[in-house]
Amino acid sequence: ETGVTQTPRHLVMGMTNKKSLKCEQHLGHNAMYWYKQSAKKPLELMFVYNFKEQTENNSVPSRFSPECPNSSHLFLHLHTLQPEDSALYLCASSQEPPGSSTDTQYFGPGTRLTVL
Amino acid sequence: ELKVEQNPLFLSMQEGKNYTIYCNYSTTSDRLYWYRQDPGKSLESLFVLLSNGAVKQEGRLMASLDTKARLSTLHITAAVHDLSATYFCAVDEYGNKLVFGAGTILRVKS
């Protein structure tokens, strides 16, 4: 596996379910991110982790709970979601601070989440 | 709070024509990024622009940055169908927090 991988790629859940999204990066980066991409809003940053420590929580509701056990893995735990939480959830990773002029955030393929 | 505005939001082009996508942002920043997203796919990095006057080119795409005007442009030269995608600019607000524009949906017609 190379780059940033995410599982599952698609997820349908009810409002009372609990599920988790997984992200893994194979790039040796030290920062990882969760983004939400919905149809009616620009891509929104949700959480940032640097060296496993959460450095940013962009006013995300508590029904989304991130976990970063090490620099290569990132989880997003979901519980009692609402239909408006249906979206594409993207994970990304980067090297921080940037080591070169071309360093950027690398994105995974995303998890398409549908909340019924 | 940093705001990033892209225009146009939708662009329908004829093959072979040139056009420019604009990205304006509201506060100073050291880094600006351009990404491409194909339908159903993830984001692919195109360019990283670091300084005033920076210009980068890859194939038919050229990106530039004017930090004084807080403006970046993505210029498309002689468009081809393969360039059809959604293009996003993103500005580094602080540290590694990126704020994205709404995206420009580009459709190249033959």
Structural class of chain B: mainly beta
Show unreliable segments of chain B: none
Task: Report the sheet with the most strands of chain A, covering strand number, pairing sense and barrel closure.
Answer: 7 strands, mixed
Strand proportion of chain B: over 45%
| Individual helix count of chain B | 0
Give the strand tally of chain B.
Answer: 11
Give the overall pLDDT of chain B as a whole number: 94
Tell me the distance between the termini of chain A. 32 Å
Order of helices and strands of chain A: EEEEEEEEEEE
**Greatest interface and its participating residue counts:** A-B, 25 and 22 residues
Number of helices in the DSSP assignment of chain A: 0
Structural write-up:
The complex is a heterodimer of chains A (116) and B (110). Chain A has strands at residues 4-7, 10-13, 18-25, 31-37, 44-50, 53-57, 64-70, 73-79, 87-94, 106-107, 111-115. By secondary structure, chain A is an all-beta fold. In chain A, the strands form 2 sheets. In chain A, strands 2, 4, 5, 6, 9, 10 and 11 form a 7-stranded mixed beta sheet that branches. Chain A has a 4-stranded antiparallel beta sheet with strand order 1-3-8-7, with no helix packed on it. In chain A, strand 7 and strand 8 form a beta hairpin. The radius of gyration of chain A is 14 Å and the shape is globular. The mean pLDDT of chain A is 93. Helices cover 0% and strands 59% of the residues of chain B. Chain B is built from no helices and 11 strands. Chain B has strands spanning 4-7, 10-14, 19-25, 32-37, 43-49, 55-58, 61-66, 71-76, 85-94, 97-100, 104-109. In chain B, the strands form 2 sheets. In chain B, strands 2, 4, 5, 9, 10 and 11 form a 6-stranded mixed beta sheet that branches. The model of chain B has no long low-confidence stretch (mean pLDDT 94). At the A-B interface, strand 5, strand 9 and strand 10 of A face strand 5 and strand 10 of B.
